[in-house]
Structures are given as structure tokens and as C-alpha cells.
Specification:
The chain has 146 residues and is α+β, with helices and mostly antiparallel strands. It has helices spanning 4-24, 28-31, 53-66, and strands at residues 35-42, 50-51, 67-81, 85-98, 103-104, 108-118, 121-130. The longest helix is centred in the N-terminal third of the chain and has 21 residues, at 4-24.
Length: 146
């Protein structure tokens, strides 16, 4: 029989899968319940932080405006679970067909998710996306595969 921690980890992984499905469908209403209302997001574009569910969904709306079709994947997700908080880290890649018809496979970025268990459900309370960069040039290292 699975332990409570194993069941929680499975639920968290399902939440990440729901996020991936919501992004691929460009469905803001599918994404909304996955985040806490006070979510703090450190995304790859300005400003330094996006605070609250409205800001997070506005950021996804902006992404959706660039894509005709969108793909998103999460790879190598590791999850650590506590009683009412958890975190996961791995790699994400956003790609698809842009509105102008250009196909892009995107680039791998580092992703971190922090979850809170509220009323029995795991929700994303914080996420962070980062691009490695070359310190000497200040340029993002966007072609990395591992």
C-alpha cells in the first residue's frame, strides 16, 4: 500500500501534468485552479516577479498570443514532499507553431515548482524559470540539452 508521501507525490505530478495539458490547450481556466491565489512567479521575462493569480495568468495569456499551436513538456521532474509543502525541479520546454507559421522547438529551461497543500489539494505557490548564461559574455545559453 502506498504511503501518504507517495500518494502526495503522485497528486503533485498529476498537477504538473494538468498544467502541461492546460498550456498545450491554451486554456487559462484549466490553469487557474492549479495555482494559489497569491502565487509568486519568477519567470524569464520582466518584471523580476509576477505576484498573484491574475499576474500569472496574464503572463500565460501573453505567451498564448505568440503561438498558433503550443507544445510544452517537463523532463526529469524530481519531487520532494513534506506535510503541507513540497517542491519539484526539472526542465521545461515551450515550443510550437508561431502565429506567423514558423515552427520552433523552443529551448530547455530550468523549472522549479513550490507547492502548498490547501484544503487537501496541492497548488503551485511559487514557480521559477531560469536560463543558464555565460558569465563572461552575459549571453543566455539557450542551446543546452542537458
Amino acid at each position: 500500500m502506498p504511503t501518504r508521501r507517495q500518494m502526495d507525490e503522485a497528486e503533485i505530478r498529476q498537477q504538473v501534468d494538468k498544467m502541461v495539458q492546460g498550456l498545450r490547450a491554451k486554456d487559462l481556466e484549466a490553469l487557474r485552479p492549479l495555482y494559489t491565489t497569491d502565487v509568486v512567479s519568477f519567470d524569464v521575462e520582466p518584471p523580476l516577479q509576477h505576484v498573484g493569480i491574475a499576474a500569472k495568468l496574464a503572463n500565460w495569456t501573453k505567451v498564448f498570443t505568440f503561438f498558433q499551436d503550443l507544445t510544452y513538456e517537463v523532463r526529469d521532474l524530481t519531487v520532494t514532499v513534506g506535510d503541507d509543502v513540497a517542491f519539484g525541479h526539472g526542465f521545461g520546454r515551450l515550443g510550437g507553431t508561431l502565429k506567423n507559421g514558423t515552427a520552433t522547438s523552443g529551448m530547455w529551461v530550468r523549472v522549479t515548482f513550490c507547492f502548498r497543500k490547501l484544503d487537501g489539494d496541492w497548488s503551485i505557490a511559487h514557480d521559477q524559470v531560469s536560463v543558464p548564461f555565460d558569465v563572461s559574455s552575459g549571453e543566455g545559453a539557450t542551446g543546452l540539452e542537458s
